[in-house]
Design a protein that fits this description.
Elements: E1 2-3, H1 8-21, E2 28-38, E3 41-51, H2 55-75, H3 82-95, E4 98-99, H4 110-115, E5 117-118, H5 120-133, E6 137-145, E7 150-158, E8 161-165, E9 188-190, H6 192-195, E10 199-201, H7 221-224, E11 228-229, H8 234-246, E12 251-256, H9 259-271, H10 275-278, E13 284-289, E14 294-299
Helix pairs in contact: 3-5
């Protein structure tokens, strides 16, 4: 493609934007650039993608990806609203992907859809690819996570509002035996303020500020699933535990609407051991997130 700019640095940024907006370009991750001069003055720049596979290999992989997409989309329950579709994608990517640092193709969608192993950029691009197939406005966000390591996640527009979601961080904490304890929904459709508790955005272009507050952020997981507590209500928590048991589920998640309520419930439930009056003496373990004010009760 011949560009109408002569700034090689800007051309590189533009090419990266194309890759960021098009996760379906899994067969190229870099490019070569050639400048043309006229009378000793640079007159044009030509950008040529560097392909990581042959055309036949690309077509074969695309066919396999298309088969996976057909299975994913036909398995999605009928009648889901926008929130339900986003949650379905969140669940799918997490359930079908293991985080493996040296996994092949881990910077593109092949790692998730064909291999089931990836790192954050593969997770985010696969999430983006699925959501775009469903008609959502979604992009990649680059930055760092709380340890300072580079990280990638998504910004998505749902019902007219922007939210962040991070499928890489959707894996629940592991048990002592190394087994997954389910999905962590703390990073499904959250605000900028909530995101910045654990992430830092590093973007060359402005990104919208997600400003919905907890009370009216209707597409946040804890709000939509009625798992947000604005006051202590142990009868309600007991009912949630009983409903989870009836469904054969082993984890109950809920979120507190304030830091003070979170600390009080942690103390009463686990230091004063009120939790055992709610689970009828069953053995439990628990986990909590001080930044997101969420509590997880694992029933054994």
């Amino acid at each position: 493609e011949t560009l109408s700019i002569l700034d090689s640095g800007r051309a590189e940024v533009l090419y990266q934007y194309v890759l960021n907006d098009h996760p379906e370009i899994f067969y190229s991750s870099s490019f070569s650039m050639e400048g043309r001069e006229r009378n000793g003055v640079l007159s044009s720049l030509s950008v040529q993608p560097v392909y990581t596979m042959t055309k036949q290999q690309q077509q074969e992989k695309q066919q396999q990806i298309d088969q996976t997409m057909t299975a994913v989309l036909t398995s999605m329950p009928a009648g889901l609203d926008a929130y339900g579709q986003v949650k379905y994608v969140y669940d799918y990517v997490i359930d079908h992907t293991d985080y493996v640092l040296d996994s092949p193709d881990n910077q593109n969608i092949c790692s998730v859809f064909l291999n089931g192993e990836s790192v954050c950029q593969g997770y985010a691009k696969a999430t983006q690819y699925l959501l775009k197939k469903l008609g959502f406005e979604v992009t990649l966000i680059f930055g760092t996570e709380q340890t300072g390591a580079d990280h990638v996640w998504n910004l998505v527009k749902v019902d007219g509002d922007y939210y962040y979601m991070d499928t890489t961080w959707g894996e629940m904490q592991f048990s002592d035996q190394g087994e997954s304890k389910g999905i962590n929904y703390n990073f499904l459709l959250i605000t900028t303020e909530e995101l910045l508790q654990t992430h830092r955005i590093v973007s060359e272009i402005p990104v919208p500020v997600c400003t919905a507050v907890c009370d009216d952020m209707t597409d946040n997981y804890y709000v939509r699933e009625k798992l947000l507590f604005q006051e202590k209500d142990y009868d309600r928590l007991k009912l949630l535990i009983e409903q989870a048991k009836a469904k054969g589920e082993t984890v109950v998640r809920f979120r507190c609407g304030s830091g003070q309520l979170y600390r009080e419930m942690l103390d009463e439930l686990f230091e004063q051991q009120k939790i055992f009056t709610l689970v009828n003496g069953d053995a439990i373990t628990y986990s909590s997130d001080d930044k997101m004010h969420t509590i997880f009760v694992f029933m054994q």
